[in-house]
Amino acid sequence: MKGVSILIETVVFDIDDTIYDQQEPFRKAVQKLFPLVSEEDMLPLYTRFRVHSDANFNKVITQEWTLEFMRNHRISQSLKDLDYPHITDEQALTFQEVYEVELDAITMHQEVEKCLDFLKQKEVPISIITNGPTDHQYKKILQLGLLNWVEEENIIISQATGFEKPDVEIFDLGKKQFSLQPENSLYVGDNFNNDVIGSKRAGWQALWLNHRNRQLPKGTSQIQDIELTSFEQLLPTFQHIFA
After folding, report:
1. Distance (Å, whole) CA 66 – CA 202
2. Is the preceding peptide bond at 44 cis, omega within 30 degrees of 0?
3. In sequence order, what are the beta bridge partners of 11?
4. Pairwise CA distance, residues 30 & 28, whole Å
5. Count of CB atoms within 10 A of residue 13's CB?
6. CATH superfamily of 10-20+107-241
7. Which residues pair with 108 in a beta bridge?
8. What pLDDT, in 10s, does the model give residues 145-180?
9. Would you kindly state where each structural domain of the chain is located, as residue ranges?
């Protein structure tokens, strides 16, 4: 952990697996639909699910794939990666429906809530840049109660922009829309490629919330300014930055 070396004036968050634990609704949906999946395979399956989701969402943006096709692909391919039986498109669709029901019940991680309260108390501007379908992500924003801390105009959802993380353009859009200076802004996210590489390319500071203890992707180096391995480290880190 290098630690930020210059003044931070604003904090911008990712949503999925940063504001809330994304594995929990996934786990519940898998248990209901695919009881063959063992508990020890749950994390590897979720990891593959995220990989396929992150790798292929751009095909939805460019309209090469439909959103439904991408969603079917990510669960069926993830199960295949772990040698589970092939599932039909109908089963994949049903999984997505159950997964969305579980996502409707997501709650903010309590340590993140403490951080948002602290930042608000310190009058630090808070914004959001998230990848995903506009309606889907906005529903999460409402479910998580994020509008208690974040102004509507300080939210960017990738599908509405034509760009997605790690595109520099989406961070540049954030710079303009949020009226921030990249070098004085800290982006907080769990995904090294999307969140760390993307924000650093755009000249931002980057906090990698590596709470799943992932290895650095091959061919990459430690460019993050801060790396945390648990949600519990967030508040002390912000207290130090904004002391």
Report:
1. 29
2. no
3. 126, 186
4. 6
5. 25
6. HAD superfamily/HAD-like (3.40.50.1000)
7. none
8. 999 999 999 999 999 999 999 999 999 999 999 999
9. 10-20+107-241, 23-103
